[in-house]
């Protein structure tokens, strides 16, 4: 089994990385950072987001697995104490996986250029110093004109992150969908938005078109502060690509939700 390891920049994560690298090599696995079959992320969910983006061009062939060195994460759900068990599974090439949907972003610029991005959690669009005004179209049909602080479009596995803080629903990653949530929309007798989070199925896209050519910030996953002055359109849809996570043992999504948000940490 060819493997790579990404670790958060702290002493504990680095020490675990060295330990894991040695143990996997001793068990006959091959360290291959350019074309791994499995990528182990050691740190937190942020480290997993980094690992995902580092291997984006191989997203359909690699499998990801995360060890947390802080609190239980959604993607980083193995405890350091369970590392021997994890090593055993990797060495035995026992690669049971689950696949999660991704968000595809297609961005058009005023100069005619175009950019395509993938996100594991979400993208957000926020204005800095004035109200963000943008037209939303769903499947090509005008839906509403949004006025407010911003918008978030999330994946199912990202629904427990920023989306949750905005009052969005938690969505099981078996559902191929994206969710649109509002940030402080202006709603009165003159301006109106739907107000509720919306779930869009696969093959339905939302197009967000800034009405004024203002500066706004766009984030996707841990990438922030991308300032766009000349964006004409951002189209969001469920990507045809999916990301694979190793599921060497059963740790159902709803149990992860409960342990992360309701119960004491047990993993
Ligand atoms: P970070 O390290 O500050 O992470 C923020 C928190 O988000 C961490 O506790 C992390 O465990 C958690 N998180 C990340 N993905 C998650 C997921 N899918 N489900 C549940 N929790 C998750 O920042 P970062 O490392 O740069 O991570 C970027 C992510 O932070 C963004 O993708 C966004 O979802 C999240 N975020 C959340 C808020 C908020 O909740 N108000 C605000 C900004 C960013």
General description of the model:
The chain has 267 residues and is of the alpha+beta class. It folds into two domains: 2-96 and 247-262, Probable inorganic polyphosphate/atp-NAD kinase, domain 1 (Rossmann fold); 102-240, Tumour Suppressor Smad4, CATH 2.60.200.30. Helix content is 18%, strand content 43%. The protein contains five helices and 16 strands. The protein has helices spanning 11-26, 45-54, 83-91, 162-165, 253-261; strands at 2-7, 30-31, 38-43, 63-68, 76-78, 97-109, 114-119, 122-127, 132-138, 141-154, 177-185, 198-201, 206-210, 216-220, 223-228, 231-246. Strands 6, 7, 8, 9, 10, 11, 12, 13, 14, 15 and 16 form an eleven-stranded antiparallel beta sheet that branches. It is elongated and about 65 Å long. The structure holds nicotinamide-adenine-dinucleotide. Residues 44-46, 49, 73-74, 121-122, 157-158, 160-162, 165, 221-222 line the site of nicotinamide-adenine-dinucleotide (NAD). Nicotinamide-adenine-dinucleotide binds next to helix 2 and helix 4.
